[in-house]
Design goal:
calcium ion binding; two-stranded antiparallel ribbon; mainly alpha; Recoverin, domain 1; about 160 residues; disordered N terminus; calcium; elongated; about 45% helix
Length: about 160
């Protein structure tokens, strides 16, 4: 069975980075945001980017295992029908993803995480330096990368 699940999302609304509830994203919008090639399914790379955006950096073997569990028909791709029940169970409610477009644009290598070079691009885009202490505080798992939730914390 799937772990508590794919993404370690806090259960209490106050724990979700104190985001102001502007708009909650539907499972369809979340799926479409990571379907980079707009094929209507998530391939291995797109699914890995989605997983890594909401968790600490997961090893490829773990992502492959998760994909196999979600990919009910075993065709190597995750269609929306396979994704929706998992997303609705995992994100109840779906988190506010108001920064997702910016996050995906900064994730130039498409791995679902923002590395040092991508964070430097963010600083350039904002026209200021990123405070190393604030960056370290946002990087909750200390892996040197920012997943989506860590990025939102940095942007607050």
């Amino acid at each position: 069975s799937l772990p508590p699940f794919l993404f370690a999302i806090p259960q209490s609304p106050g724990d979700i980075l104190q985001l102001q509830p502007i708009k909650r994203m539907s499972a369809r919008q979340l799926f479409d945001a990571f379907d980079a090639d707009k094929s209507g399914s998530l391939d291995k790379q797109e699914f890995a980017a989605l997983v890594r955006a909401f968790t600490s950096d997961q090893p490829d073997a773990k992502i492959a295992e998760l994909m196999k569990e979600v990919d009910k028909d075993g065709n190597g791709k995750i269609e929306f029908g396979e994704f929706e029940p998992v997303a609705n169970k995992t994100f109840a409610p779906l988190p506010d993803l108001k920064f997702l477009a910016d996050y995906r644009a900064l994730d130039t290598d498409g791995n679902g995480l923002l590395g040092k070079e991508e964070i430097a691009q963010l600083a350039t885009k904002l026209g200021k330096s990123v405070d190393p202490a604030k960056l370290a505080a946002a990087d909750k798992d200390g892996d040197g990368n920012l997943n989506y939730l860590e990025f939102v914390a940095l942007m607050q």
